[in-house]
């Protein structure tokens, strides 16, 4: 079993692992020819089924994958991987490989970093005991008695210095039999698909609503709230999104308008099939009719963690509480799915 590759898009990989680490501590990383999959399946809460082409984050020419089945499944502590990748941002190059120390499999991240130093030795400090060289006299003012040479020393210009750093992340290699029962959930056709507004703004408002509802619930009961308040997220096929929360003590909501309902690919449906889709039926209902709104109730804290995908890409399409993160890379358009 062998895996080795050069990283070409460290920033995207770092943002992806940062988003995943906010949802769960352990991630299932599946390495295949041409595709890398990241999956998170918690006991409860948001599932992640992310799929990226190899060239989105790795150098395809150096991508080496060898195993009996042609696939390597790893259980990765995603927070440790994120911290290692964060230190690689700005590095000259970075390589990720699967290795072993004793009986412990490891993901080894080797970083090559360069910096500039001054001086003529390894640490950029001139030798004070070295005899004066010809260049030591170039700053001397011969018109002044008692002038002394500058102590720059020969060859004391800036020098490039390279540093190699290797970080090892303990992982667990999963046998195919251990994950053969795991399958991406199948979702029905969505009632609404809409591009969300700024996730930073949406996250800020969501956290504010959750805190207000939690404080109101705690004040009313006299005890701290054990469960997170439920937010109501609703949208229609006329470019409107509404986020609200209602308790015995308060009822508030925020509404966004003029958002985009992205069209579906007509090549995947006939005209008759397209007309029968739930989203097209919802589009036919006037926007001022409450029947045109699709609604879901979501856990406030879990929703806040989901919105951390905003650091990965500013464009997210929500389809009946399935989120497709639209990533634009060098190789084209890639999608990351959160359920």
UniProtKB/TrEMBL annotation:
The keyword Nucleus applies. Residues 126-161 are annotated as: Disordered. Its main location: nucleus. InterPro entries: HUS1, HUS1/Mec3. GO terms for cellular component: checkpoint clamp complex; nucleolus; site of double-strand break. This is Checkpoint protein. It holds the Pfam family Hus1. It comes from Aspergillus sclerotialis. It comes from the Eukaryota. GO terms for biological process: double-strand break repair via homologous recombination; meiotic DNA integrity checkpoint signaling; mitotic DNA replication checkpoint signaling; mitotic intra-S DNA damage checkpoint signaling; nucleotide-excision repair; telomere maintenance. It is found in: Nucleus. Keywords: Nucleus. Belongs to the HUS1 family.
